[in-house]
User: What shape does this take?
Amino acid sequence: MFTQKDISQIEEKGLSVDKVKAQIENFKRGFPFLPVSRAATVSDGIFRLSGEEVKRMVEIAEKESGRLAFIKFVPASGAASRMFKDLYGYVSGKEESASVGEVLNRIEEFAFYPELRKYIEKDEESRQIVKCIIGEPGLNYGKKPKALLSFHRYKEECRTALEEHLVEGAAYAKGKGDRVSIHFTVSPEHREDFKKLTERVVPEYEKRYGVIYEISYSEQQSATDTIAVDEHNEPFRSADGTLLFRPAGHGALIGNLNALEADVIYIKTVDNVTVECRIKDTVCYKKVLLGVLLSVQDKIFAYLKEWDKKVSSSDFIDEVAHFVEKNLSYKLPLSFGKYSLKERGDYLYKILDRPIRVCGMVKNEGEPGGGPFWVTASDGAESLQIAESSQIAPDKKYLMKEATHFNPVDLLCGVNNFRGEKFDLTGYTDPSTGFISQKSQDGKPLKAQELPGLWNGAMANWTTLFVEVPITTFNPVKTINDLLRPAHQAIL
Assistant: This one.
């Protein structure tokens, strides 16, 4: 199957021949669908907090923040080309669509307009204006990452998406020593541009918000790439005869996440920011999620610290089992009661002693995003997972219509155990939850393989809690037109 030249290429990427063969077997077999049983809803997997509970969680978060080390983890690699799909079509000769028309008619409302004016004449032809947005000479936004695009315009300044993450971080991720640590995953070709921007703007934001920023970067490792195959599941080769490897999606970032040292890690996509005058709900509910995480974590740690003393007590095991089902959204198997006392203790210990993620869930209003579902294990136990539509079998698709909420990639992660040691996060993934997608290269169809998603299968064996948060905390920018939404228009 592989020539010596192929083997050298594989090894240069940090992969092994056996690993690549295993990837090809995944293409042949396919990945199994998730055994979803039902959608998680309020009172059945999703916690809806009362006003008093919200207030109490915020108080816990604010009280404890000063002793904690936080990291805000922002996946930000890749160019923003998909954001400008319609603009590319227009430049290539397609008719002006409604979305392109809106861009042209409201061009002055974009934060980048003052900069764009440097490249266009007063009565510039429409296609030339669009060319100057996405290409060169011009802003070249089609080749830049979203983090570096001008998202919001204020009276005295324009801010990129990266800068809005600095603002957010100062508001809810300030830990001991007034430090705000933000980690961006970046592409190698963009890393220097990230560094230049942060070096220029960080001193001003530190002065403005009274914090000390610690900005770090990492790249998706080439050893996480997966081989592409043709329609017959044979290795796909580029025009020069070399094997084609592709980045394996955001699931490959579990290694990047695992390398970070912190008590709590926030995860949020780079484009989900809003203007500063509208971040009140975002800040409030980040603190709510932190309060929930700390409350649950404290109880888990208390149980584990006294485990050896009390594990032989049936009453203690019953108390822990009740806590697991009521507070950790984990439904024990029907056979659990038939286990011996030792077996029940061992079972519960494994549930308690693992990473925790608290996920914000917003009401489903037609936006894309993974949905919250109950998934049944082989022993009959049920746990919560964030599932994508591609993971759900055709005969279970109707369950998606029953989903009332979805996850906007709003997560808080507790990654240390009760001894203060870091969990090895790579040990809590479900390798069977990868994805296979249809792509093309040089006009030829191919199949690509993605690793289990970072907030899907890569966290499948974490303790998972879903908490309802308001839709105002979700302000993604999937297309350029989204920047015209109120959430991205500052009050001047």
Notes: The first helix runs from residue 4 to 12. The chain has a mean pLDDT of 94. DSSP finds 15 helices and 19 strands in the chain. The radius of gyration is 24 Å.
